[in-house]
Fold:
Amino acid sequence: MLLHSQILGKGQPLVILHGFLGMSDNWKTLGNQFAEHFEVHLVDQRNHGRSFHSDDFYYDVLAEDIKHYFEAHHIKEAILLGHSMGGKTAMLFASKYPELVNKLVVADISPRFYPVHHDTILTGLNSLDFNILKSRGQADKQLANYVSDFGTRQFLLKNLYWVEKGKLAIRINLETLTEHVSEVGEALPLHAKYEGDTLFLRGDKSEYIGSQDEAIIKNHFPKADIVTIVNAGHWLHAENPLDFYDAVTNFVN
Structure:
């Protein structure tokens, strides 16, 4: 089973992995910018976007999915960029297959363990009954009972699509993601290490990477730089795309 992707531009491969409940489309705007200099691979991870659904969902299989993707697309070496859950996948992949990763960029996630914090969102998504809800507006109204932030709801509702006229559905494998949500916060294995050039980006309004994370980052990634993106929370690439783009291109170049 091969992951779905959108491939943009030409040049050195830059593979981008989205976060939990996201998809490759979330990166389309930045992907087009990066495509001016790179061959950009916007990848849907399993159970997300247009990629295949599976009952298995943990970081070892997510990393193996990327290995198969590299093989299928004859990628010998790439710059690997991952956000949140995608950052965890990217960290593990780089530690297992360092020869395939030229440089590593991790956006707003640390190698440490995170407790489950998506449960309310998942409860809200599971409450969407598409036999009753006939428009995105109705779905948004229902989801607002669980998720107050408008921007977060718009991000989540990007997963909706029209199966046929008048019939909405959700692309993510909601059942498996709900069942295995605890896997998303799992720590990088203690022995995992990547010795190559690494950039960790954190949003100044986000609590995902704090000062206490610097030591654990350096333990796994000895050559890591940690850069703060201002005026940005956890979705730093969407909230301050200009500074995010500049930080990545400066590091890569």
Remarks:
- The mean pLDDT is 97.
